[in-house]
Amino acid sequence: MHTFPAPAKLNLFLHVIGRRDDGYHLLQTVFRFIDYADQLTFTVRDDGLIKLTNPMPGLPDQDNLCVRAAKLLQERSGCPLGVDIHLEKRIPMGGGLGGGSSDAATTLIALNRLWKIGWDREHLMTLGLELGADVPIFVYGRNAFAEGIGEIFTPVDLPSCWYLVLTPPVHVSTVEVFSSRELTRDTIPIKMAAFSTGQGHNDLEPVVARMQPVVASWLAWLRQRRGATKVAMSGSGSCIFAEFPDEPSAREACMQMPSEMSGFVVQGLASHPLSDF
Ligand SMILES: C[C@](O)(CO)[C@H](O)COP(=O)(O)OP(=O)(O)OC[C@H]1O[C@@H](n2ccc(N)nc2=O)[C@H](O)[C@@H]1O
Ligand SMILES: Nc1ncnc2c1ncn2[C@@H]1O[C@H](COP(=O)(O)OP(=O)(O)OP(=O)(O)O)[C@@H](O)[C@H]1O
């Protein structure tokens, strides 16, 4: 039995700079891992079966991204082994924090080792991209400036800081946001260095804020917090965050949260906990 973390990510900004012929969007974004994670426990089986030991309500096992990742790896590597997977879910689902993608990436990294397949990270990242645009970053394992559809990385060193992440009680469909007529797809590409001077916004944010007014009003509240150096939505939402230089200022903002709001304080990570595994 082996337990591994699957951390969440924040998109510190997300620019949509174009669209490919297949409908996928060309992005520029910075991914930052945060100290908030699901836990996955793997027990290798020698009968080749892949089983989730604690099914998630409303999500058929065969659609679960960790089951899909295990099946894909088994199929492509020809490995005869199977696995029991226990998934302890903590990251809000469909919140733009990449939880499902992170579960898939941790599964690929762990089973590559436990099944003794021996592929390098590059190979696992290519496989991961078949499961979703957000999977490769979690396999890559370093905070990064990302381009392409979110799979071409340049590592970035980010300052230590803390986040107040708010979790509005609404689910936002990534497909719906990307296919909105209101979405602008022509932000001028920036150089990576521009980000460190504070440039960057999330082009998906105004679309989601219009679809879900609660996101707009919670964003407005976050923008009024003292000491916040940045406020934005992560990915396709609905989670939003404020960045603070230290823990006390993030906690102070959290204490001021009205009772109808929900969220948590979390530290930004320097890298994925399995980056050197
Ligand atoms: C918004 C982000 O979370 C930012 O990190 C990701 O780009 C989304 O990644 P993801 O959830 O892994 O996305 P996928 O499962 O690959 O794609 C879901 C849907 O989002 C749209 N999509 C996604 C990524 C991208 N670069 N362009 C897109 O247009 C497509 O309609 C796609 O069918
Ligand atoms: N292990 C999993 N954990 C969470 N969701 C999963 C998982 N496997 C499949 N899914 C499906 O994927 C959808 C998106 O889940 P996820 O939590 O990754 O959203 P997200 O963070 O908004 O992703 P993204 O920002 O990458 O679109 C869920 O609504 C669910 O139907």
Automatic annotation (TrEMBL):
Binding site for ATP: P92, M93, G94, G95, G96, L97, G98, G99, G100, S101, S102
GO BP annotation list: isopentenyl diphosphate biosynthetic process, methylerythritol 4-phosphate pathway; terpenoid biosynthetic process
Domain GHMP kinase C-terminal: 200-260
Active site: K9, D134
Ranges where the GHMP kinase N-terminal domain occurs: 64-142
Gene Ontology terms for molecular function: 4-(cytidine 5'-diphospho)-2-C-methyl-D-erythritol kinase activity; ATP binding
ATP-binding in keyword set: yes
Associated pathway: Isoprenoid biosynthesis; isopentenyl diphosphate biosynthesis via DXP pathway; isopentenyl diphosphate from 1-deoxy-D-xylulose 5-phosphate: step 3/6
The protein, known as: 4-diphosphocytidyl-2-C-methyl-D-erythritol kinase
